TrEMBL record:
Keywords: Membrane, Transmembrane, Transmembrane helix. Residues 72-92 are annotated as: Disordered. It comes from the Eukaryota. It is a multi-pass membrane protein. Its main location: membrane. This is Transmembrane channel-like protein. One of its GO terms (molecular function) is mechanosensitive monoatomic ion channel activity. Residues 582-688 form the TMC domain. It is found in: Membrane. PANTHER family: TRANSMEMBRANE CHANNEL-LIKE PROTEIN 6, TRANSMEMBRANE CHANNEL-RELATED. One of its GO terms (cellular component) is plasma membrane. Belongs to the TMC family. The chain crosses the membrane at residues 265-292, 366-386, 456-480, 504-525, 591-613, 690-715, 765-782.
Length: 833
């Protein structure tokens, strides 16, 4: 048969791969025409339709269920429940009952049922699309540039031609059209074709082969050289990107952990990696603007410097007290190049201002103040950005069925060909599929009133035990810290120096012991509660461990910022009394001790809690049951350590270096222990929002608390008068104020800068405005994510309603066919009677 094809340019075009709902009628109409063109068996003339209707009226062998026109439940809101149940029953029977041959024939001609069935129809359709796209994006070339098969057809100009071409000729025309398109349009067109991968690969290879032969015959020598250079540069760029991707930190270890233990355990190590980059940033800032300038111009030290004994690695005192490690070492002078040479050159004191103006200077108190302030400000920006980005990624609606289909069909990377990466990827995909299947099969049990009351009592008792244990430990820490502080003030001469320094470890040991033991008690209480979902148990454990860590840090901050500065009575001349230590250095040493002792107790927990338990289970109990990895306890240990590092930046500028070393060692020790001693969760579960919760806890309780303490120290507490860059000032903040006043007196033209400092830095209103802006950004980001979730939910409901619409229309069609068939059966029975 022959038919004309419309090539009217006024007809609206359909974008490749971006069809909108408004173009749905055009797409469906094109499918109908293509199916009509290619499937002659589905084309019926008017006479054939009449014969088919007579055959359908006479057939009596169809065992059909009488569907009496079910009403779609979404069309009439407010209908009673009986009618809705009846409609559901009728539409569900469509999946079980046998439909009539007429209904099946109509269903087989639907566009959604014919995609991918007729390969020739698809090739013809995309041949027409390539012609339309070529006319829109390119000017018409000369006829002589075309091959015979690719020359414009006379179809569409009122002349009917025979369209019963073979599939090979249609494929050749499609390939000719594809080779004329640009590379981007060609890739999008091939990607949008509903063909299998082998056929797409064949079309791409034919297109590239013809394009290469066609272009190589026309390219000049210079153009060919330029083409080869571009290809070489592109390959080099891709190789460089692949090399940089392979340099990612701990990539292989993280893949192994993800494949064996799932996303929950992996989130802990990703969070550790995230904290490592934070501390690297802090170390770079403090090292460049504080440590390095002071190392180049060291201050004069007293002659009675303490010797190194080795105990300083644990206590942080002794030899380390007179180093760049602590606040007390830094001078309050203006560091200046060749200042000493200028003074030694017999320059009088009256000429010293001229000497100061000849060489660049570095104001150490001002640098100390602004370096700490800018480090915290940039950290706040990074945290807010990371949290908002993580909110957008993790709080999307990921239906488990949809994610399961994506993982099953789209998760394999075919570029991976080596044996070990293939094994890692297969383990990773297998674990993710287990997690998704566990989420799909998870059922919410409906409890009776008695069961609800029993669970409520159990949960209340568990929380009472946890709160009581935490309160008791806090009271013990409070009184023990007071006792140790009083012992420190007495200066007992009978104790040796080493014994006195060793006694400083008592408070860190007590706090670390409590942080190690109480999470075990929380786990025992959680076993008593018997949670059905492992993820809910993890979140509850996180909240209880967070309550413990925040309370302990609150007691310690009160001890460091209230007791120690208030009772510091060092004389104003440190050179006369070398045994005197300023309270800022003492607080820095305390934070160093807490960080080191916490790391030691973490190693002990890994040794006794995981390694020895695994050996005892294997050798003595003869069981393969191994301990699981406690995500909540280990994550809160990381947040606790990072809070100590943020608190200590002001008093110990090199404390981020200690934290970096601790995190590096902790990663390798924990990964080895997890792989050797721990077992995967018995019930796999997916924790899509775990990383977001970790970053949120790091931002609000941890960083916000550390920022408040540091800001309070710099604004309100009087610095030591014998050490540090802020000696002699009422507060650390006054150093910036004094410098601005001095600058305004020396140069009146900079009065605008002084006023800006007064309004922006001294006035706390702008600090609250900045904090409010950050909170508003987080709020709007959460609202945007919530709106996207609602839109996705509405679209998914719309898809479900479309399916119900199809069921409704099929049932209506079936009922009409039944009504037409019933009189015909009666007439046949009367004639036979």
């Amino acid at each position: 048969m022959a038919r004309s094809v419309n090539f009217d340019l006024s007809q609206p075009d359909v974008e490749i791969g971006l069809e909108s709902p408004a173009d749905e009628d055009v797409v469906h109409d094109s499918f109908s025409r293509l199916i009509e063109e290619q499937s002659e068996n589905n084309r019926l003339s008017a006479i054939e339709l009449q014969d088919l209707q007579q055959d359908l009226d006479e057939e009596g062998r169809d065992s059909l269920a009488g569907l009496s026109g079910p009403a779609y439940r979404g069309w009439r809101l407010g209908s009673d429940e009986t009618e809705e149940d009846d409609n559901e029953r009728q539409t569900d029977r469509l999946l079980q009952d046998k439909l009539s041959s007429a209904t099946l024939r109509i269903l087989s001609s639907m566009p959604s049922r014919t995609i991918g069935r007729s390969r020739g129809a698809i090739i013809s359709q995309y041949y027409n699309k390539t012609m339309q796209l070529r006319r829109r994006r390119q000017s018409r070339p000369a006829i002589k540039d075309f091959s015979r098969s690719a020359r414009p057809s006379i179809r569409g100009y009122g002349v009917e031609v025979d369209t019963t071409d073979s599939a090979e000729s249609k494929k050749e025309r499609l390939v000719n059209n594809l080779q004329i398109l640009s590379v981007g349009d060609r890739e999008r067109m091939l990607r949008a074709m509903p063909l299998n991968l082998s056929e797409k690969k064949e079309l791409r290879s034919l297109t590239l082969k013809k394009t290469k032969t066609h272009s190589s015959s026309k390219l000049t020598c210079c153009s060919r050289l330029k083409f080869y250079i571009i290809i070489a540069l592109r390959h080099s760029w891709y190789s460089l990107l692949s090399f940089l991707h392979s340099l990612q930190l701990w990539q292989t270890r993280l893949k192994k952990i993800s494949g064996r233990f799932g996303s929950g355990v992996l989130s802990y190590f990703l969070f550790l990696k995230y904290l490592l980059f934070f501390n690297v940033f802090l170390l770079l800032v403090t090292g460049a603007f504080l440590v390095l300038p002071q190392a180049l111009y060291p201050p004069k030290l007293h002659a009675m410097r303490r010797s190194f004994t080795g105990l300083e690695l644990l206590t942080g005192a002794g030899y380390f007290s007179d180093t760049l490690m602590y606040y007390g070492y830094y001078s309050n002078d203006t560091l200046q190049r060749n200042r000493e040479n200028c003074i030694e050159g017999n320059i009088s004191s009256s000429a010293s201002p001229q000497c100061d103006s000849n060489y660049p200077s570095y104001n150490m108190p001002l640098a100390y103040f602004f370096t700490i302030g800018m480090a915290f400000f940039i950290t706040c920006i990074i945290l807010v950005y990371s949290m908002s980005k993580s909110f957008g990624q993790s709080f999307r609606i990921d239906k488990s069925h949809a994610m399961l289909a994506m993982k099953a069909f789209c998760s394999w990377d075919f570029k991976v060909i080596k044996k070990n990466p293939v094994k890692l990827m297969s383990e990773n995909i297998c674990t993710q599929l287990k997690e998704l299947l566990a989420e799909v099969n998870h059922r919410k049990f409906k409890n009776t009133l008695k069961q609800k009351l029993h669970k409520l009592l159990v949960h209340g008792l568990a929380w009472t035990i946890c709160i009581a244990a935490t309160t008791g430990c806090l009271v013990g820490i409070y009184y023990f810290s007071d006792y140790m502080h009083e012992q420190e003030r007495l200066h007992d001469v009978s104790k040796g120096r080493l014994l006195k320094e060793a006694s400083l470890l008592a408070l860190p040991v007590l706090v670390s012991f409590i942080n190690l033991v109480l999470p075990g008690l929380f786990n025992l209480v959680a076993d008593m509660e018997n949670y059905n979902s492992p993820s809910i148990r993890t979140y509850v454990a996180l909240s209880r461990n967070l309550m413990l860590k925040v309370s302990v840090l609150g007691i310690l901050c009160y001890h460091w910022l209230s007791r120690v500065p208030a009772e510091s009575d060092c004389p104003s001349s440190k050179d006369q009394d070398p045994t005197c230590e300023c309270w800022e250095s003492f607080v820095g040493q305390e934070l160093y001790r807490f960080l080191i002792i916490d790391f030691i107790f973490t190693l002990l927990d890994t040794l006794f809690g995981e390694l020895l338990w695994r050996l005892f289970s294997d050798k003595v109990l003869r069981r393969k049951r191994r301990p699981g990895f406690d995500i909540a306890k280990n994550v809160l240990h990381l947040i606790y350590g990072q809070t100590l590092a943020w608190l200590g930046v002001l008093f110990t500028p090199l404390l981020p270096a200690v934290q970096i070393l601790k995190l590096l060692l902790l990663f390798y020790i924990k990964t080895s222990s997890v792989m050797m001693n721990c077992q995967a969760p018995r019930r796999p579960y997916r924790v899509s929002q775990m990383t977001t919760i970790f970053i949120t806890l790091l931002c609000f309780p941890s960083f916000l608390g550390a920022s408040v303490c540091v800001t309070y120290t710099m604004w309100s507490i009087k610095p030591s008068g014998s050490c540090g860059p802020f000696r002699g000032n009422e507060s650390m903040f006054k150093a910036g104020k004094n410098w601005m006043d001095k600058l305004e007196k020396e140069n009146p033209h900079l009065s605008l800068l002084a006023r800006a400092h007064t309004y922006l830095v001294e006035n706390p209103f702008f600090l609250f405005v900045g904090a409010g802006i950050f909170l508003i950004v987080i709020y709007f980001q959460s609202q945007v994510v919530d709106g996207q979730r609602k839109i996705i939910t509405l679209l998914q409901e719309q898809i479900e309603n479309e399916g119900e619409d199809k069921k409704f229309l099929i049932s209506k069609l079936q009922s009409i066919h039944e009504k037409k068939r019933t009189p015909a059966r009666r007439l046949t029975s009367q004639d036979s009677g």
